[in-house]
């Protein structure tokens, strides 16, 4: 399967991923404040393994739409994977406040930081 995966499947996936990235970038070229495109690019960068770019796109999505829960969930998941539970919980609480409990439910098995002194 190595040859099939390396010569056929992976190049097709890479082309699709690059096409999706170009599509979202074109949206941002027209509307740099489009939170959905920032979120989509963050998700695509995360899929590519570019954590830093993903985090920046998710932060931009939040900056341009403070009522958008999905980037909080995605950031919280990144932070949880990295063992940064305080940051993960901050994003979980914000996503929950915005109506998405999925991250809080997912993090329920991890230690929650004290609520006092917690900043966003």
Task: Summarize the SSE layout with pairings.
Blueprint: H1 2-30, H2 35-48, H3 51-64, H4 70-81, H5 85-97, H6 102-107
Helix pairs in contact: 1-2, 2-3, 3-4, 4-5
Looking at how many chains there are and whether they match, the oligomeric state comes to single chain
Distance between the termini: 46 Å
Shape: flat
Instruction: State the fourth-level CATH superfamily.
Output: Tetratricopeptide repeat domain
Provide the residue-averaged pLDDT: 89
Amount of helix: over 70%
The CATH architecture term is Alpha Horseshoe
Tell me what portion of residues adopts beta-strand conformation: under 5%
Tell me the series of helices and strands, N- to C-terminal.
HHHHHH
The major pleated sheet works out as: none
Short description:
Helices cover 73% and strands 0% of the residues.
Main attributes of the structure:
disordered C terminus; 73% helix; mainly alpha; 6 helices; 120 residues; Serine Threonine Protein Phosphatase 5, Tetratricopeptide repeat
Characterization of the model:
The protein is mainly alpha-helical and 120 residues long. The protein has a single domain, classed as Tetratricopeptide repeat domain (Serine Threonine Protein Phosphatase 5, Tetratricopeptide repeat, Alpha Horseshoe), CATH 1.25.40. The chain is built from six helices and no strands. Helix 2 runs antiparallel to helix 3. The longest helix has 29 residues. The termini are far apart.
